[in-house]
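User: My instructor asked us to take a sequence, write out its structure as tokens, and then describe one feature of it. I'm not sure where to start. Here is the sequence I was given:
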Amino acid sequence: MILEVLFPNRCIHCNRIIDPELLVCDLCFSQIHFTHYNYFENNPIKEKCSLLFPVENAFALIQFEKEGLSRKIIHDLKYRNREKTGKILADWTTDRLDFRDENPDLLVSVPLHPRKLRERGYNQLHLFTETLSEFYDIPFDHELVKRNHYSKAQALKDKKHRLESTHMFSITQSITGKHILLIDDVFTTGNTVSSIAWKILNAGDNRVSVLVMAEDV
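Assistant: Let's start with the prediction itself. The structure tokens for your sequence are:
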């Protein structure tokens, strides 16, 4: 209680004091550009994925704008030690994503390399994924996919290097006949998601859907 008085939670956009469980104030929340995509129908993120690999369904929560509030939100999660932002984003997702009793079998998030995990202290997707898992009653597996090579953050790469296959992944266990919901933070070129999707698809008679926090527009 004393800490809340001395160090109150503030909106990451306008710095207004807000409830400890919030990320932005009501006024700034209205500035977030949610996609309003239908998970089961064609939408821009599904079309982009379809060009890279066979995808069942796809959903993006918000639009990632280089100078907008969405960028602050994602960077707050990834680079400012605010893991709880992942839970808030998951809560926003559950308000907007309905699986209509056609739940995927398993939630799988894009892994960090162990060195990157030690540096950051947490995987920015884990709490997000675990919150979704609890809400939808779908199991998750943080160990199914392994990142084999350490690389610098996507945000620090130019577009040419993002297109290169520098992120190499492997599947750590046998999996077949499953519908996997692959989860990532920002969909840019789709290279990372595509690399993992093909590993899952080639591992057995599996299907892949995609959920991202933000779609780069």
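For the description part of your assignment, you could build on this observation: The chain has two domains: 1-31, 34-216. Try explaining in your own words what that tells you about the chain.
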